[in-house]
TrEMBL record:
Organism from which the protein derives: Psychrilyobacter piezotolerans
SUPFAM superfamilies: Dehydroquinate synthase-like (SSF56796)
Keyword annotations from UniProtKB, A to Z: Amino-acid biosynthesis, Aromatic amino acid biosynthesis, Cobalt, Cytoplasm, Lyase, Metal-binding, NAD, Nucleotide-binding, Zinc
Pathway assignment: Metabolic intermediate biosynthesis; chorismate biosynthesis; chorismate from D-erythrose 4-phosphate and phosphoenolpyruvate: step 2/7
PANTHER family: 3-DEHYDROQUINATE SYNTHASE (PTHR43622), 3-DEHYDROQUINATE SYNTHASE, CHLOROPLASTIC (PTHR43622:SF7)
UniProt function note: Catalyzes the conversion of 3-deoxy-D-arabino-heptulosonate 7-phosphate (DAHP) to dehydroquinate (DHQ).
Stored Pfam families: DHQ_synthase, DHQS_C
Cofactor(s), names only, from the UniProt record: NAD(+); Co(2+); Zn(2+)
Residue intervals of the 3-dehydroquinate synthase C-terminal domain: 182-322
Protein's name in the database: 3-dehydroquinate synthase
Gene giving rise to this polypeptide: aroB
Positions that bind NAD(+): G106, V107, V108, G109, D110, T130, T131, K143, K152
Catalysis: reaction(s): 7-phospho-2-dehydro-3-deoxy-D-arabino-heptonate = 3-dehydroquinate + phosphate
CDD domains to which the protein is assigned, alphabetical: DHQS
Length: 354
């Protein structure tokens, strides 16, 4: 069993990683929650696979769980779903002081986490991530949000969970496309922070061989994310590096109304594109984009799309790294090293992508 700790003073918490840990969930919850009532928020797919089991496990540990289920998919990470989720939580007689469990992939974690941060002005929550992407990234660090018609994650907050419980066995039912999407965020950590980890991922024979080491990979990613979030919880500086590939990636997701690419696939295209741009601008060492291409290809991730940059520019301006009209673009200087470049809104067209 691996236990990591993320140190954020009174908001600090543990991340537990182990195969089969889901079956003993009550034991872990009791470390941070002493009362009885819990609301589990999940999506339709996760509910079908694991909903009954989670409720049974919770009841066996003496909890009184209720369940709120919403339709799976990024297209439902919005205010309409959020309103339904609030109302169902209220109807299930959950009060301030009770606990919410976000049980699912990144969509559930982001939406349920935002519900937890706002309902009754905030109730405690725990993350039980069920996709690779959520286990390596979205369940850690407290960014919670929903999309609006104008763009990704535009309404949200920073709200740390009380605990993250990661069971890699839950990934056995995940389809391959979703595993590959999670790998895009895994590759991101190597690219921005740890060239040795990058080379290790590049040296793997294929996705299957990475999956045999998945516990080690999840731990590595959570360690990196924890270190970064500890230094900059509110995304004002260092944390922005976790957004490598995301300015373009989020714009691509939005451009296709979340229907063409998963989040991981979109940021895969974004990581390759921004690295090529970095080379053209002399920020990134020559040859780095070939390495990024090689690793993304190895994990069967997309690297380009036919959308024209002019169609993405307006969407990119809604990015949350746009601070008072100055965008922060994340470039690699080399593998494992990052440069944040400030670009005025008007310079995006006439300087960056000219
Ligand atoms: N908050 C953050 O720091 C952060 C970080 C990265 C990504 N995100 C967000 O996360 C979202 C993407 O998350 P995702 O890739 O997990 O997508 P997702 O939550 O949509 O899950 C992908 C699919 O897998 C299904 N699923 C989940 N667990 C399963 C399991 N164990 N077995 C079978 N099917 C399962 C889901 O129902 C869904 O259909 C995006 O909205 C992105 O913006 C947030
Ligand atoms: O935790 C972070 O910080 C990240 O940027 C992680 C990203 O992988 C994630 O997609 C995040 O939701 C993007 O945040 P946003 O602020 O660009 O919406
Ligand atoms: Zn991401």
């Amino acid at each position: 069993m691996e236990k990591l700790h993320i140190n954020l003073d009174e908001k600090s918490y543990d991340i537990f990683i182990d195969r089969g840990i889901f079956n003993e969930i009550g034991k872990y919850i009791s470390k941070v929650y002493k009362k009885k009532k819990i609301v589990v928020v999940t999506d339709t797919n996760v509910d079908k696979l694991y909903g009954d089991k989670l409720l049974k496990n919770l009841k066996m540990s003496g909890y009184m769980p209720a369940k709120v289920v919403f339709d799976a998919g990024e297209e439902n990470k919005n205010f309409e779903t959020l309103t339904e989720v609030y109302e169902k939580i209220i109807d299930s007689e959950i009060k301030r002081g009770d606990l919410l469990i976000a049980f699912g992939g990144g969509v559930v974690g982001d939406l349920a986490g935002f519900a937890a941060s706002t309902i009754y002005r905030g109730i405690d929550f725990i993350q039980i991530p069920t996709t690779l992407l959520a286990q390596v990234d979205s369940s850690v660090g407290g960014k919670v949000a929903v999309d609006t018609t104008r763009g990704k994650n535009l309404v949200g907050s920073f709200y740390q969970p009380r605990m993250v419980v990661i069971d890699p066995d839950l990934l056995k039912t995940l389809d391959e496309r979703e595993v590959r999407s999670g790998m895009a965020e895994v590759i991101k950590y190597g690219a921005i922070y740890d060239s040795e980890f990058f080379d290790y991922l590049l040296g793997k024979e294929d996705l299957k061989s990475s999956m045999t080491d998945i516990e080690k990979i999840i731990k590595k990613c959570c360690e990196i994310k924890a270190k970064i979030v500890e230094k900059d919880e509110l995304d004002l500086g260092l944390r922005m590096i976790l957004n490598f590939g995301h300015t373009l990636g989020h714009a691509i997701e939005k451009y296709y109304n979340y229907g063409k690419y998963t989040h991981g696939e979109a940021i895969s295209i974004g990581m390759y594109d921004i690295t090529k741009l970095g080379e053209r601008l002399g920020i990134t060492k020559p040859g780095v984009s070939d390495k990024i291409k090689e690793i993304l290809k190895k994990y069967n991730l997309p690297i380009e799309d036919e959308v024209e940059i002019k169609d993405l520019i307006e969407i990119m301006k809604t990015d949350k790294k746009n601070i008072s009209g100055i965008l922060n673009f994340i470039f690699l200087s080399e593998i494992g090293k990052v440069e944040i470049k400030k670009v005025g809104e008007e310079e995006i067209t006439n300087k960056l992508f000219k």
